[in-house]
Amino acid sequence: MLTEIHEGPGRPLIRLAYATANNLTNKPIYTRSACFLQVEAAAALDRAQAAARAIGLTLIVYDAFRPTEAQWVLWHHLPDPTFIADPRAGSTHGRGIAVDLTLGTPDGVPLDMGTGFDDMTQSSFHNAPVPLEARRNRLILLGLMTQAGFEHIESEWWHYNLPAAERYPLLTDAAAGTRLMAR
């Protein structure tokens, strides 16, 4: 069951990249900026946000549930399974259990992570040689997210998902009722 994630006091900031042209395709994929996750993933995100706030930071969400239709758009743009899950196999985003995010100051300024979101290069790997401040920030994000119940993938410092993905069905925009994609 997907639930919509809203901004508000004590909540992560929602800055969905795929609702803008500020993403690897350089064009909007979603027709609106609405953020959805499975209930369990939303609860884990809340735990991570509470831990971030306890150290004077906030989470900034760039993507969460991604309908299968959107996964195909990304795959057609960059058919590289290192960074984009093949939509035929499905992705954790398409199950509503993944979130792409960064750390920011309380007023929403992203911290230095060594690369931007959607930088599909070796520099985005968790273990990539990045400046010390970026390494520190990546490790803080990793600690917050894993403590909250998420796991990471090695190739994207910004991606976290719940384990046991097979427990959750792959969803299209219509099946999820999210109305993110153009009809």
Automatic annotation (TrEMBL):
Annotated positions for site Transition state stabilizer: 66
Pfam families per the UniProt record, alphabetical: Peptidase_M15
Catalytic activity: D-alanyl-D-alanine + H2O = 2 D-alanine
Entry keywords, A to Z: Cell wall biogenesis/degradation, Dipeptidase, Hydrolase, Metal-binding, Metalloprotease, Protease, Zinc
Enzyme class: hydrolase
EC number: 3.4.13.22
Active site: 156
Cofactor: Zn(2+)
GO BP: any one term: proteolysis
InterPro entries: A_A_dipeptidase, Zn_M74/Hedgehog-like
This protein's record includes keyword Repeat: no
GO molecular-function terms, A-Z: D-Ala-D-Ala dipeptidase activity; metallopeptidase activity; zinc ion binding
UniProt keyword Iron, yes or no: no
Free-text comment on the cofactor: Binds 1 zinc ion per subunit.
Binding, Zn(2+): 93, 100, 159
Domain of life the protein comes from: Bacteria
Function: Catalyzes hydrolysis of the D-alanyl-D-alanine dipeptide.
Family label: Belongs to the peptidase M15D family.
Protein name per its UniProtKB record: D-alanyl-D-alanine dipeptidase
Organism phylogeny: Bacteria, Pseudomonadati, Pseudomonadota, Alphaproteobacteria, Acetobacterales
